[in-house]
Amino acid sequence: MTLPDTIPIPVLRLPGSADLPLPAYSTQGASGMDVVSAQEHILPAGDRAAIATGIAFAIPEGYEVQIRPRSGLALKHGITVLNAPGTIDCDYRGELKIILVNLGQEPYKIRRGDRIAQAVLAPVRRAAWLPVTHLDETARGEAGFGSTGFGAADVEPIR
Ligand SMILES: O=c1ccn([C@H]2C[C@H](O)[C@@H](COP(=O)(O)OP(=O)(O)OP(=O)(O)O)O2)c(=O)[nH]1
Ligand SMILES: [Mg+2]
């Protein structure tokens, strides 16, 4: 497998978290690094919480980190990242926190060291607004929000 280059990210282990593993790729081709909880927390059904990870880091300019749910937790327990994908800005120096919500029927116990989410390093492009008085015309125009239908039969093939 040919893996992409890695980008070094300075990371600080916060007091009391020296024993925890840093976010890590769990397979050779994983997009995201699994992030572990630094705390124990019981999340009642329907509740949300910002879970400490015990790390802070300095993302290089031109990148961000996205915090995404783990599908296993979502499917088995209804535990997901409420603000997915969470945005970690390159100028943030505070502790990484994972905002979890319990959409299941049962309370869910997060243990210290549990892998609760995944962090994806992603490039960022910045936009510059260019005010104009007209926009170019397209076939879609202003139609949206289901305008092309929902079933395969609704779709007009393009010839
Ligand atoms: O899941 C998350 C989302 C954000 N953050 C941290 C890093 C991020 O750079 C900062 C701000 O996040 P965001 O911009 O999403 O929140 P906001 O509500 O817009 O706060 P702010 O006004 O501080 O930007 O909070 C986390 O630790 N975890
Ligand atoms: Mg913000």
TrEMBL record:
Superkingdom classification of source: Bacteria
Span of domain dUTPase-like: 20-149
Catalytic activity: dUTP + H2O = dUMP + diphosphate + H(+)
Stored Pfam families: dUTPase
EC number(s) from the headed UniProt entry: 3.6.1.23
Keywords: Hydrolase, Magnesium, Metal-binding, Nucleotide metabolism
InterPro entries: dUTPase, dUTPase-like, dUTPase-like_sf, dUTPase_trimeric
SUPFAM superfamilies, sorted: dUTPase-like
Cofactor(s) needed for function: Mg(2+)
Recorded GO MF terms: dUTP diphosphatase activity
Binding annotation for substrate: R70, S71, G72, N83, T87, I88, D89
Pathway: Pyrimidine metabolism; dUMP biosynthesis; dUMP from dCTP (dUTP route): step 2/2
Family: Belongs to the dUTPase family.
Task of the protein: This enzyme is involved in nucleotide metabolism: it produces dUMP, the immediate precursor of thymidine nucleotides and it decreases the intracellular concentration of dUTP so that uracil cannot be incorporated into DNA.
Protein name: Deoxyuridine 5'-triphosphate nucleotidohydrolase
Gene: dut
